[in-house]
Design brief:
The complex is a heterodimer of chains A (251) and B (428). By secondary structure, chain A is an alpha/beta fold. Chain A contains eight helices and twelve strands. Chain B is built from eight helices and 21 strands. Chain B has a ten-stranded mixed beta sheet, with helices on one face. In chain B, strands 5-6-8-10-12-14-16-18-20 form a nine-stranded mixed beta sheet. In chain B, helix 6 packs across helix 7 and helix 7 runs antiparallel to helix 8. Classes of the chains: A alpha/beta (251), B alpha/beta (428). Chains A and B meet through helix 2, strand 7 and helix 3 of A and helix 6 and helix 7 of B.
Amino acid sequence: MMLEIENLKVKTGDVEILRGLSLSVNAGEVHAIMGPNGSGKSTLALAIAGHDDYIVTDGSIKFKGSNLLELEPEERARQGIFLGFQYPVEIPGVNNAYLLKVAVNAVRRHQGLDEVDAFEFLKLAREKMALLGMDPQFLNRGVNEGFSGGEKKRNEILQMAMLEPTLAILDETDSGLDIDALKAVAKGVNALRSDDRAIILVTHYQRLLDYIEPDYVHVLSQGRIVRSGDKSLAVQLEEKGYDWVREAASA
Amino acid sequence: MTVSPLPMDALRRAMAELPGDRLTPVRQAALARLQESGLPTTRHENWKYTDLSGAFEVAKRALEAGSASPKDDGVQAEIDAVRNSIDAHWLVIANGRIIGEPPPDLQTPGFEVLRFSKSSTTPSIDEPLTALNAALLEDGLSIRINDGADISKPIGILVIDNADATPGMSQVRVAIDLAASSHAQFVEYHASSGSAEHYSNTVIDLTLADDANVEYLRVQKRSLNHSQTERMNVQLGCNSRLCHCGFDLGGKLSRNDLNIDITGAGADASFNGLFMAGDGQHIDNHTRVDHRVGPARSTQEYRGILSGACRGVWNGKVIVHDGADGTDARQANHNLLLSRKAEIDAKPELEIYADDVKCSHGTTVGQLDEAALFYLRSRGLDRRHARQLLTHAFATSVISKSPLPSVEGLLREMVEARLNELAASDMP
């Protein structure tokens, strides 16, 4: 089992957002987490990544058999967990290429590998950027500085492609994307699919799942998974709306 | 009688030791002016946040001890280090004494360097610290850039102070005049050495005639037992342009007054600063722009990084005088507080007496952005590295405004080194 979440309860401030969530993800699988606004989708993503504002009050998260909750966010990242942010942060003055390189080397050091040299790094970055249809000029800019919404999301996918994480969690990566950007993002994600990796797609809409086909779809409502199924569940949701699930949950 | 807190007899004795030359009557006039005005205290609005009594105590002990020559070995090493790292026509003032005659390479056509004692330049005495400077001034440097000259290599002014056995005090005075349509670059570098305390008092007068163009970089990297006050008076003629950038990286107490007088239409002044203070340091930047005519533009951005128990001050005053229509004045001050014990006093002041003007000001005080910190950590950077990166990014925006591209690399190294020192001593 790659990721095993059991009865997870998470609060932020005084508000309990996740109220006993359980989820198991195996290597090779793609899971989609869907649900209405405020159901706890982003909280789940941020809790797995280790954000300080999200406090786990009960339950457990195990990653490859060991307790994830003991680890700092950077340790989780180095072990191969990647969070693609819903709202990537602009960091003027920190060079995009520099951050990419430092991030790649942090993971490599953890794995006991040599750091990539500048030449190797640039070659790899240009390759991945071509795949995502990104202008190489983006490497020289500040991290997300002045990027459009679509450019920021592509930049997240570029980071993911460079880091080659074991577990990628993409938090509403599809929101605000035009169709070209959506296709580019899907291409990046699909390129990463493999037997030894897992991907969790957090999304509000079924649209993304036309391009990235999930193995499982889970519906989150009021901090719990209320329904799980295969990709046909997403289609059903699209047709019937989230009220259908809410009714099912309270029934 | 005293010019509180400096004893009059010791002041007179120090003046008597200076050479008798054409500056002698000016020194006497300056002393009389000083007796009248006294020295600034925190009761003066302009000095509310900066207490000079510690610096004046050093001055008093230095006066009582008599003048001390700088220790040659330490000073020479420092001079060589600066000369080797920045390519410039260097003029050196050590412990207030101009070292040597202007070197031969300064006799290039286009500009001349003279001592006040051998030129017609007379030091001003209008402000208390300016009067103190004039009263005890051994000699000043007068730099003149000729009509239409374009000096490609920067002119360096190295102010270096050394006090070892007894506390020291020094006065530095430089007058720079750019004739019409001339262009020059300047690097002013303050360094210090020695185990004893020192107080240095610098006055720079910079005058730009019509269409003159200046890039000016000021770097203050004194040791933590040296204090300094500095006043730069700038006068801008029609369509002249000043691009100034100051870096305060050291010093126990550092107070900088940058006063810009815009007397010619079409003038453009841009001035920026970065100050970085750690435990026990006090750095104060006071700027004042007098827009006397329009249209003209002034733009300033000062950034402070404060760590440990220290204090930073920024006071930016803009006065748009009656009739200065078409003035465009912008000021910004951003401060990063990395410790609970750090204090910043930031104050923008705008006085507008003209109708058609554009003025803006903004001041921020804050900690590192938590969202950015988490973002970096989620990419595998540890907290310390993430903090360093964000702090560095905050400083970088000033470095990128530095007017001398040839010194940018060195500035980056110096800022980085200082950040690492601050991080080692303070960051959680």
